[in-house]
């Protein structure tokens, strides 16, 4: 089941690293990410996309079959999604995932309807489904199913005024398994 847009995105703590459960909540309650994948040459490819979380912790990205995102999944199913917090101080959470393609057109329409709701901040009315279905057909849309296996978090650290520079601290984060339990 596709999860609805959260009424309020999770706010990351500013005094410590996020717990594993908080990392999952951060991902479930946000809507945009930088989708990245390896290229054969040059650096990694990256694009900003809306994603849809599911109740089984998949992250769904709709794309056109002819785009690089879809083409690369066939040769390399490893992707990263840098989930973005749209509020300041800016926070992000890197999610590493195994990706597969789903070419079920009806499912692509469901995901595109959900993406439109994320873009506007309100669910799309069912009356829009025929137009979305036509767009999915015309653009040969499919869904990238991303199954997270680990995360890397960066907490928000910000100077609110220049005389705080001596109090600004940073710490190191590390990879945490997606399904890790919180420490006791």
Automatic annotation (TrEMBL):
One Pfam entry for this protein is PNPOx_N
- Pyridoxamine 5'-phosphate oxidase N-terminal domain location is 20-111
Q: What is this protein called?
A: Pyridoxamine 5'-phosphate oxidase
Q: Which organism is it from?
A: Mycobacterium triplex
């Amino acid at each position: 089941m596709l999860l609805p847009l959260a009424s309020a995105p999770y706010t990351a703590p500013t005094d410590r690293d996020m717990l594993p459960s908080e990392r999952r909540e951060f991902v479930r309650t946000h809507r945009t990410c930088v989708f990245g994948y390896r290229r054969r040459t040059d650096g990694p490819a990256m694009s900003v996309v809306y994603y849809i979380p599911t109740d089984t912790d998949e992250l769904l990205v709709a794309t056109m079959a002819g785009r690089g995102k879809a083409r690369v999944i066939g040769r390399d199913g490893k992707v990263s999604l840098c989930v973005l917090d749209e509020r300041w101080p800016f926070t992000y959470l890197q999610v590493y995932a195994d990706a597969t393609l789903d070419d079920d057109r009806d499912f692509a329409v469901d995901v595109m309807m959900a993406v439109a709701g994320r873009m506007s901040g309100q669910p799309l009315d069912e009356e829009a489904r025929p137009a979305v279905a036509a767009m999915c057909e015309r653009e040969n849309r499919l869904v990238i199913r991303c199954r997270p296996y680990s995360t890397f978090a960066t907490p928000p650290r910000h100077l609110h005024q220049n005389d705080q520079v001596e109090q600004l601290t940073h710490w190191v984060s590390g990879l945490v398994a997606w399904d890790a339990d919180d420490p006791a």
